[in-house]
């Protein structure tokens, strides 16, 4: 991931509702959620949610798939991994063993 893409992701996550959406979709996992369910879960109007979902999608943090007349949203784990890799790219000044506790903390136990 390059600096501009990382900045776009950080900008997308810097708004409270979008951060809540991203965390909700991470929690939903492979099942994902419909836009309506996301709006209802976070008590946000659907038109406002649509704008927030669009920003997260452009930032590469979420993805969507059409299901008939509705759209299901998922956390884009590749986008999240790319962002985390960007942050840790030069971790620990060439001593990767110092980064291992952080990596262990980030590893999903699921």
Automatic annotation (TrEMBL):
Signal peptide boundaries: none
Keyword Hydrolase: no
Domain of life: Bacteria
InterPro entries: ArsR-like_HTH, HTH_ArsR_DNA-bd_dom, Metal_resp_trans_reg, WH-like_DNA-bd_sf, WH_DNA-bd_sf
Coiled coil: none
Start and end residues of each HTH arsR-type domain: 1-95
UniProt keyword annotations, A-Z: DNA-binding, Transcription, Transcription regulation
Gene Ontology MF annotations: DNA binding; DNA-binding transcription factor activity
NCBIfam families in the cross-refs: HTH_metalloreg
Full protein name: ArsR family transcriptional regulator
Species this protein is from: Puniceibacterium antarcticum
Top-level taxonomy: Bacteria, Pseudomonadati, Pseudomonadota, Alphaproteobacteria, Rhodobacterales
């Amino acid at each position: 991931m390059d600096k501009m893409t990382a900045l776009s992701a950080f900008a997308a996550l810097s708004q409270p509702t979008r951060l809540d959406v991203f965390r909700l979709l991470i929690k939903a996992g492979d099942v994902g959620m419909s836009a309506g369910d996301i709006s209802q879960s976070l008590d946000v109007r659907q038109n406002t949610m649509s704008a927030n979902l669009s920003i997260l999608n452009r930032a590469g943090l979420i993805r969507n798939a059409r299901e008939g007349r509705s759209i299901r949203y998922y956390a884009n784990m590749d986008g999240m991994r790319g962002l985390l890799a960007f942050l840790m790219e030069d971790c620990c000044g060439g001593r990767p063993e110092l980064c291992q506790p952080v990596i262990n903390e980030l590893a999903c136990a699921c």
